[in-house]
Design goal:
This protein is of the alpha+beta class. The protein folds into two domains: about 1-155, Nucleotidyltransferase, domain 5 (2-Layer Sandwich); about 155-210 and about 260-330, ATPase, nucleotide binding domain (Nucleotidyltransferase, domain 5, 2-Layer Sandwich). About 35% of the residues lie in helices and about 30% in strands. The chain has helices at about 60-65, 75-95, 110-125, 155-165, 175, 215-230, 240-245, 255-275, 290-300, 320-335; strands at about 1-10, 10-15, 20-25, 30, 50-55, 55-60, 70, 100-110, 125-135, 140-155, 180-185, 190-195, 200-210, 245-250, 250-255, 285-290, 310. The N and C termini lie close together (about 10 Å).
Length: about 325
């Protein structure tokens, strides 16, 4: 039996096993017949995902972005559950699963979606699945994935377990286990708020809002369309956000000031919600900022939130905090 953590996000899909973790964009594309492929450049497996599941083939992630004529990306919760979860999850799980070895999976959903979608998520993935990975040299790798059990968690709880436990799934931070902790998990489409009091989930102060880092991406993309006449897809904004500029039709556009403005507004919205939601939770010992969006928003958000705010360390990929916590919890549960 193998334990794997998986986090299917609107922006990225993350998978963790043992001491390893992988991440790829939650983007599906129709395969095309490539006339030529050079092995110059990044030839890594994760950058060239081409799979067949249930007799249907897909380019996944970066490969879909670069090569597919028809690409599918969603910010719709219903479409994510019904059409994207299975393909993204099986693709991620198959990378690490051994042939026919039973897998126990820990995953999560936003706090506000957990009750509604937990059962469908589990039913979609539990059981046996076949997947074929197509390699660029024309060879194929076929795998049978046997998903035995699935444990679902409120998404932000994963980050707390990641801080609490060591790699063996053992409680290592006993001081944290005794405290009342608030978690703000800023994702691509949603932001989650969760409170755990001595590791007990407190439903009263836990919620989801449909505001995430994509809110700022959309506003920046709208401004770029006004300036250039080109609609930039949200999943193609990451590099521009990171560098502060984007080149469109040979002309470079600076977005640094625009990013500052939209991030400040977004941080204000999130802070307004959490300060109201946690108005009676004055005994919270610390607030943990996590999620991929926290990397960008921490400096804007931290001054606006009352209490002892603890951002994740800069040398850690905040997008992986939840999935690594899922894996640790799985080791604890099924040790």
């Amino acid at each position: 039996m193998e334990v794997i953590g998986i986090d299917i996000g609107f922006g990225f899909t993350k998978v963790a096993i043992h001491e390893e973790a992988l991440i790829f964009k939650s983007l599906l594309g129709e395969p095309t017949n490539l006339q030529f492929w050079s092995n110059i450049g990044d030839g890594s497996f994760i950058k060239n995902l081409y799979v067949t599941i249930d007799d249907k083939s897909y380019f996944i992630g970066d490969f879909a972005e670069q090569q597919s004529n028809v690409r599918r990306f969603t910010l719709d919760n219903e479409m994510m559950i019904s059409e994207f979860v299975k393909v993204l999850a099986i693709t991620a799980l198959g990378i690490y699963s051994e042939k026919h070895t039973p897998i126990n999976v820990v995953s999560g959903l936003p706090v506000g979606y957990l009750r509604q979608n937990r059962k469908r998520f589990v039913q979609t993935l539990t059981g046996y699945h076949d997947i074929t990975y197509h390699n660029l040299d024309g060879s194929e790798t076929r795998k049978g994935i046997n998903i035995n059990k699935i444990q679902m968690l409120p998404q932000p709880v994963g980050s707390l377990f990641n801080l609490l436990m060591n790699g063996k799934g053992e409680a290592a931070n006993m001081e944290l286990a005794k405290q009342k902790v608030g978690v703000i998990d800023i994702g691509f489409r949603t932001t989650d708020f969760a409170i755990l009091n001595q590791l007990k989930f407190v439903d009263r102060g836990s919620s989801t809002i449909e505001i995430g880092i994509s809110t700022s991406f959309s506003e920046i993309a709208d401004k770029l369309r006004e300036m250039s006449g080109i609609s930039v897809e949200l999943y193609r904004m990451y590099k521009a956000i990171e560098t502060g500029s984007i080149k469109i039709r040979g002309q470079e556009y600076s977005i640094s000031n625009l990013k500052d403005q939209t991030y400040s507004l977004l941080a204000g919205k999130i802070a307004g919600v959490v300060n109201k939601l946690w108005a009676d939770e004055w005994d919270i010992d610390m607030v943990v900022l996590t999620g991929g969006g926290s990397t960008e928003l921490t400096k804007y958000l931290k001054p606006l939130i009352a209490g002892d705010v603890i951002p994740i360390e800069n040398n850690i990929d905040a997008r992986l905090n939840n999935v690594q916590g899922y894996l640790k919890y799985g080791k604890y549960k099924w040790s």
